[in-house]
Write a structure and sequence with these properties.
By secondary structure, this protein is α/β, with parallel strands linked by helices. The protein is built from 9 helices and 8 strands. It folds into 2 domains: about 1-25 and about 120-210, Rossmann fold; about 30-115, Rossmann fold (3-Layer(aba) Sandwich), CATH 3.40.50. It has helices spanning about 15-25, 30-45, 50-60, 85-95, 100-115, 125-130, 145-150, 160-180, 200-220; strands at about 1-5, 25-30, 65, 70-75, 75, 120-125, 135-140, 190-195. Strand 4 and strand 5 (about 75) form a beta hairpin. It is globular and about 50 Å long. Bound molecules: 2'-deoxycytidine-5'-monophosphate (DC). 2'-deoxycytidine-5'-monophosphate (DC) binds near residues 31 and 126.
Length: about 220
């Protein structure tokens, strides 16, 4: 069973996806980290992320893997490095390129296949494009000020000034939602949960109830 958890930054996707995966003993894939690793490869190569052809070539030859909850680039664990400001600033440009997305989406589908087709997958287009047949689709939202506060409290985010974080989130939302290829939108059959006034545990419980419901209806068939 694939459980798709989509939404913009700062809504609590990672916390919720990890919590759901732990509660059900499922594998967890953070797809944002795969786009971040692709972006790190581009930055390291010195190629301009706005140069579509060159960027596509670099990403196609990069070895991006996701092992034990950590993203790797060419055999190196880069989980912390991909959260740095330089990568965050360039990731929307790299992930907007359709050829890059095709390549990375293939890698994500292979990863889930290798985990027996059972995983909690977090991202922006999981319920719409990567796994349109996911058994459970959740789209998390939260008020912008709540998202900025959560992100600026995240120790993995560099430069955690809430005003800067709020601007960066708004800019990334705009780019991720308006790009032509797989824009950030809820799937028509996703359950939308506004997490602004909920604790992480409450959101996890809500998603687990959806998982149990889906598992139950699977058994009925
Ligand atoms: O979840 P995150 O902030 O680590 O994601 C980083 C960027 O990667 C995000 O701004 C857009 C892109 N992304 C995407 O295009 N599709 C996904 N499924 C996940 C992330």
């Amino acid at each position: 069973m694939v459980i798709a958890i989509d939404g913009p930054g700062g809504v609590g996707k990672s916390t919720v996806a990890k919590g759901v995966a732990a509660a059900r003993g499922l594998a967890y894939l953070d797809t944002g980290s795969t786009y971040r690793a692709a972006t790190l490869a581009v930055l390291r190569s010195g190629v301009d992320p706005d140069d579509t052809d060159e960027t596509t070539t670099v990403v196609a030859s990069a070895d991006i893997a996701y092992v034990d909850g950590v993203v790797c680039l060419d055999g190196e664990r880069v989980g912390a490095e991909v959260r740095r400001a330089g990568v965050t600033a360039a990731v929307s440009a790299v992930s907007a390129i359709p050829q890059v997305r095709r390549h990375i989406v293939e890698m994500q589908r292979d990863w889930v296949r290798a985990h027996g087709g059972n995983a909690v997958v977090e991202g922006r287009d999981i319920g719409t494009v990567v796994f349109p047949d996911a058994a459970v689709k959740v789209y998390l939202t939260a008020r912008p000020e709540v998202r900025a506060a959560r992100r600026s409290g995240d120790p993995e985010v560099s430069g955690n000034n809430p005003c800067v974080v709020a601007r960066e989130l708004a800019e990334r939302d705009r780019k991720d939602s308006t790009r032509a290829a797989s824009p950030l939108v809820p799937a028509s059959d996703a359950v939308i949960i506004d997490t602004s006034d909920m604790t992480a545990a409450e959101v996890i419980d809500r998603v687990l109830a959806l998982v149990d419901e889906a598992a139950g209806s699977d058994e009925d068939v």
